[in-house]
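Researcher: Quick test of sequence recovery. Tokens follow.
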């Protein structure tokens, strides 16, 4: 089908682009994961504030953190969780970024067209992280923070409209649409978390899935691959599978392999490990996760411990699975997610 051909093209182009970037002495581009919200489109002031926070004069890590704090109102603890760094480290980054804005006299405005490319990667990253904070909040009683998800989708639509020829802006919007289409199925009627494999797919928003697919295919046809197009392609593999059993996990593992050339992080490699486990067996995925276990960036990411616990349970190492679940419970997560892990822990003990 057309989508698979487009994904094959993206993988080929992604390898070529990464090689060209390496030959030029540059790092590959950028970062890493619905419908209209009731708040309407963001105004120029809001977009201007985001672009000011993402000014190239600021340190790249500080740009995103400052935007999440100043524009989206996230607290420092939540931002630190999104970056998988200690809270004091994140607080220092934000303070230094605010000081730099004052000293440099940076203005709050949407950049001129020629200035947009140097700001775009950081702005897209901010919108992506706002959505992930809403989709998987690190604390609180709600499984999903709909206000943050809606705000992220509103901003993604505004950026896609501002940059109609930019495939990564379209890719980000496609990613959010395809992911958010599953929002209503993520919890049952009592608020308990429902894993992806067990969700009632009749509750998925097919209109958002169709729109996300159209945006993704149009972005891929531009022939300028990037990380958000890859993330969206992975989301499409999930959203377009007729059932959990028919999910193309080999395709997902291959796409994560391509994504690593843009985002060489242990988080992406851990996600690839889960896809490998689903396509080649739990032992194969567990070997990848165990090799990553010494990376300090993963010790405060509960999803790493959860994924490892699931695979340990599948290979019969129940005591080790229990230990991994307990490691996850020591970290921040929403109350429904915590209850889900406690049920999993009880099942293996």
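Model:
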């Amino acid at each position: 089908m057309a989508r698979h051909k487009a994904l094959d093209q993206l993988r080929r182009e992604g390898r070529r682009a990464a090689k060209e970037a390496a030959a030029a002495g540059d790092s590959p581009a950028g970062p890493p994961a619905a419908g209209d919200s009731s708040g309407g489109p963001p105004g120029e002031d809001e977009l201007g504030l985001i672009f000011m926070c993402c000014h190239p004069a600021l340190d790249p890590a500080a740009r995103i953190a400052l935007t999440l704090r100043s524009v989206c109102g996230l607290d420092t603890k939540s931002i630190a969780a999104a970056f998988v760094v200690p809270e004091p480290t994140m607080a220092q980054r934000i303070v230094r970024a605010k000081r730099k804005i004052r000293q440099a006299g940076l203005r709050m405005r949407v950049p001129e067209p020629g200035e947009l490319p140097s700001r775009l990667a950081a702005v897209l990253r901010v919108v992506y992280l706002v959505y992930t904070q809403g989709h998987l909040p690190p604390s609180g009683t709600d499984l999903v923070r709909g206000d943050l998800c809606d705000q992220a989708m509103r901003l993604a639509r505004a950026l896609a409209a501002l940059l109609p020829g930019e495939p990564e802006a379209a890719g980000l919007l496609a990613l959010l649409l395809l992911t958010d289409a599953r929002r209503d199925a993520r919890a049952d009627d009592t608020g308990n978390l429902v894993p992806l494999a067990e969700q009632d797919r009749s509750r998925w928003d097919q209109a958002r899935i169709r729109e996300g697919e159209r945006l993704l295919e149009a972005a891929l046809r531009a022939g300028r691959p990037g990380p958000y197009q890859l993330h969206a392609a992975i989301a499409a593999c999930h959203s377009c599978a007729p059932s959990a059993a028919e999910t193309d996990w080999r395709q997902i593992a291959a796409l994560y392999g391509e994504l690593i050339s843009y985002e060489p992080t242990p988080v992406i490699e851990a996600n690839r490990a889960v896809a490998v486990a689903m396509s080649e067996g739990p032992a194969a995925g567990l070997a990848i996760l165990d090799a990553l276990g010494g990376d300090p960036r993963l010790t405060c990411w509960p999803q790493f411990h959860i994924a490892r616990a699931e695979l340990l349970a599948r290979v019969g190492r129940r005591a080790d699975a229990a230990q991994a679940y307990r490691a996850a419970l020591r970290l921040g997560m929403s109350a429904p997610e915590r209850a889900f892990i406690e049920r999993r822990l009880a099942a293996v003990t």
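Confidence is low (pLDDT under 50) at residues 13-39.
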